[in-house]
Amino acid sequence: MVNTADIVIAVGYILLIVVIGLWAGTRRKTAKDASSSEYFLAGKTLRWPMIGLALFATNISCLHLVSLAQSGFDTGLLNGNFEWMAAFTLILLALFFVPFYIRSGVATLPDFLERRYNRACRDWLAFVSIIAAVIIHIAFSFLAGGIVLETLFGINMYTSIIIIAALTGLYTIVGGLRAVVVTESIQSVVLIAGAIIITIAAWTKMGGWQPMTAVLQEHNAMDKLSMLRPAGDASGMSWLAVFLGYPVLGIWYWCADQTIVQRVLGAKDENNARVGALFCGFIKILPVFIFVLPGLFAYALYRSGGLNVSALQQAGSDTLNTKGIYTLMITQLLPSGLIGVLVAALLSGLMSQIAGALNSIATLASYDLYKRFKPDTPDVKLVKVGRWASGIALLVSVGLLPLLNQYQSLFEGINDVIAHIAPPITCVFLLGIWWKKASPKSAQFTLWIGSLLGAVVYAVNKLYPSSVLAKVPFMMMAFYLFAACVVLQVTLSYIYPVTHTAQSGTLYWRSFREPLQSRGWNGIGNYKTLSVLLLLTMGVLYWIFR
Q: Which of 94, 137, 152, 320 lies in disulfide reach of 277, CB 3.0 to 4.6 Å?
């Protein structure tokens, strides 16, 4: 199945990334002498290409390659909405959120919430962000990577995970954000190249687009080519659920999650931050074609007899366990040597996701938790605290794996968790930057009550799967929870009116035009021009695949 050459390529790639990460993180300053700004924010020197690639690499992990292919096999292009809708929230990040973050000079998003609201909001967001990073960005990625490596190489899942965790943690904990961003830029290229290879292999095996659509027509499965399903669709992902529910998840993930936004905070200036975010928006067009579409080709190949899926059949049943479809495609569609490249691409996604999450956890633990109690802590001590926090996060994430492995679809699992975490955070950020009357107490109670409500709903869904709540699609549940949080915060803002400080009085937009007054760069690189171009591109794509 996997020969020595493939193993050598995969192992060699891992070692190369570790060496590059250690070099990038220590070439300017030794770990002992590094300032906290250099360690956590790369000295604020990042330019737009590196920011865009790093955003994409932190977002895309081994989980996405494996699970999006699975979703392509099961439901077609439908889950590609999570990739294409991200472009719209990245436009929001570039136009409306970046100026706040860059101009205020914050190191973390909880720091921003304290300046806009109060200390309690900062503490809660720091706590929730660390928990989310451990579960969403690290543990789920570990799980997907472990399943793939166990299937391909026969290595025990936990053994492979521990090895990858140790190697990724080594250069991330030592090198800080610079090491993370440099390696993520390389890993983005490798990951995209690997995904393109498997797409070409599936396309070639199928014979192109027309033979695939012919198979879909024969099996009454043409709806698999549609991104926008009618209201009440059995998938729970109707066009209404996508356009109402995704923004709640997406604004938290792309605009208010420390793990993602930290790449923007390390930007050289506002223009680089804005264009970097938009560059990532254009890259996010690719996953539908190179991550989801191969799964759809695999379905057509399976139906036409070109792919043997007997290894996926569950014992005593005709039902397929499609979690392993990506691994099956690698072993059946690729020649020796290219298998090693694809494994390297999978490892790229896994390592970059974990590295980015570890760095954000280090930043949150140091700036938002430890420094609160010891404000005079020197930079060297802050870096040390961040490294210890990263190490502990790795151990906790490994311990969560048996629980998360119960999901049938890892991609749906991760979005199910996000749907119950995101609503109160999205609410307080949106009202905070757009509504002058959003008060500190209202935000504080909205975060507390909204998070508790999300946790209760999530628990009820899992403990009582036949309940009315459990039958609500998670995307619509995210919207309902968000609407409840908005009503709660607006009501509480009138009960506890805001009294702005000199600082908080500058941290909201007075009009829609205000954040767009910055001229930006000239030519095609202007952030306004790029935003319009991205909007038009997404509109055309959704029209084609409606």
A: 94
